[in-house]
């Protein structure tokens, strides 16, 4: 979702008066509200991968009164194209995807050799000239930080700013093949503490157990924040940290959009396809023969693509840039 902000920026640059509403999953609505280019974030109460035609149709009928001129559909599934069609939006732009003829009437060519990055493919759909086949200029996402909320957040979570902060983001929703080993995160937490940093481990409720294995529960500078914050709270908290060490995950893109220096760890995925969108981001990627495989589990059972990224290498990157 964060990468889509580059599309919104592109649309506003072409037409500053354009009104952009975004239809998105419930979990992302508060995050979209931190994107100044968006007028309204509309929640679609359908779980990922679920068709639920009834809800899609009801939502579409409700949206007809907004008289939208165009819908840009970034996903390539048939499901994603149904609602704009039901809403009778006159121009429905997207890639052909799953044979969506009829559902879309402004089908753009997807040149994967030209548009190698996901964010480029999003922004390309925003070109007003459908014949424009040049690689679009990418403006990096930048989420708004609510400074007024930070004091209450720090108080509620019993955090302080007495020492510089390194955030560790150990989760990856896609699967273990994108996760740097927990023991590596734990060793890194110990070593950056010795350098004078405090450690905030961030993630969802699902990451809570992993985080408990990373932090030293006896340390007054290690904090397990997983499951204790809303996603928008993480935006505000990340704006306070000096570094974020992250797997290739949604939170990695959130961190980049809060202007923190991100050290991004890539294994089964490719930094050429979903790079960290920040000018100061540091990419750690071994480019092994078996990588990227884009699989959820390591098919060879060794996870060398991530295990070969050592704690010492990550620590050296921090020392060099601090």
UniProtKB/TrEMBL annotation:
GO cellular component terms, semicolon-separated: cytosol
EC number: 2.4.99.24
Pfam family, one: Glyco_transf_9
Entry's Gene Ontology molecular function annotations: ADP-heptose-lipopolysaccharide heptosyltransferase activity
Keywords of this entry: Glycosyltransferase, Transferase
Entry keyword Glycosyltransferase: yes
EC category name: transferase
InterPro entries referenced in this protein's UniProt entry, alphabetically: Glyco_trans_9, LPS_LOS_Heptosyltrfase, RfaF
Record keyword Glycosyltransferase present: yes
Any single GO BP term: lipopolysaccharide core region biosynthetic process
Homology family: Belongs to the glycosyltransferase 9 family.
Protein name: lipopolysaccharide heptosyltransferase II
Species for this entry: hydrothermal vent metagenome
Lineage: unclassified sequences, metagenomes, ecological metagenomes
